[in-house]
Amino acid sequence: MIFFSAIDFFYVAFIAALLVLSVFSICFILLLRFKSRRSRHLQNFNSLWTVRFLFVIFIILWSLTEVLRLPSFRRFYLYPLFPRLTLPQQANFCKLHLVLSLGFFEPGFLIILLFLLDVSVKKTTHKSFFSVFYVFASCLPLFLLQVYFVFLGGFKVRLPQPFHRSWFIPDMDHGNEALVFCDYPLLSTILFGLFGVIFILCFLLSFWKVVSQVINKALKLRIFALALTILIGLPLQVLLMGMSAFWRPDKPTYNGIAVTVFLITFTFAAVGEGILVIKPIADSLAAAVALVEQRPLRENGQGDDERSSPPPPAEDGLTATKCDA
């Protein structure tokens, strides 16, 4: 039991750090939203605030579902507050976690990540309604497929247990005191893997379009860091999730694989918030401050060369400007 408690503490610590980063990101988004009302230079860049806010919300919801699936967390923190769940209810809880995590929240923030990368090379400004509709419409097929195979039991009779096992009861637990461990069924992993293949192809197309147009070296470095994280992490995540189906969730090997899968998704979220939310908003605010500081100089005739002043923040999913710094 000590091993699992240490694993649970590891999860909770990293999720708490991600939640703090997410709250910090929301503060940046709201600050930009407030500043844009007073600065016309920030209004174009601020048009993506809804998408960025939704990006952070998806990450927060994914984090909370990861906490709630931990057996020790449910035993010590949820059961004293709520009626104890029966075994079928715990099994349905694991199924719900699986559908929300692999079918909605993680695909959702990955799709928004791709959207923010793709919109950075487009000159047109996307409406908030279109952006939100695009995200939910893109998540819907995978979500419905996960619901069908996890809850409705598609092909369950004709496939071996690792293909559809979404929960597991360890041998050491018996009767009403049993705790259900959540698992990744191989069929759900295959569905998520198909999503990953399509996502990576779309990501590569957007990546090459952005890299071909960016001349800022620091920005290009951030784009390559984001691409490296996605192109290595996502296939590795799918591979490890597929391997985990052949071990029981109460085995150390399974827990090692599950921790690695969690860290990969954690990295997606943390890198995405840093590169697509915090850094571009900080750049846009700094550019707006520089414009305000140079305004008195231009009024006094000391800054006639407008090329020396930084350009106003443009609509960009990665940074405030696309020019060379």
UniProtKB/TrEMBL annotation:
- Entry protein name: Uncharacterized protein
Q: Which UniProt keywords apply?
A: Membrane, Transmembrane, Transmembrane helix
Q: Region Disordered: what ranges?
A: 297-325
This protein's species is: Gossypium lobatum
Transmembrane helix: is it a keyword of this entry? Answer: yes
Would you indicate the residue range of the signal peptide? none
Q: Which parts of the chain span the membrane according to its record?
A: 6-32, 44-64, 96-117, 129-151, 190-211, 223-247, 253-278
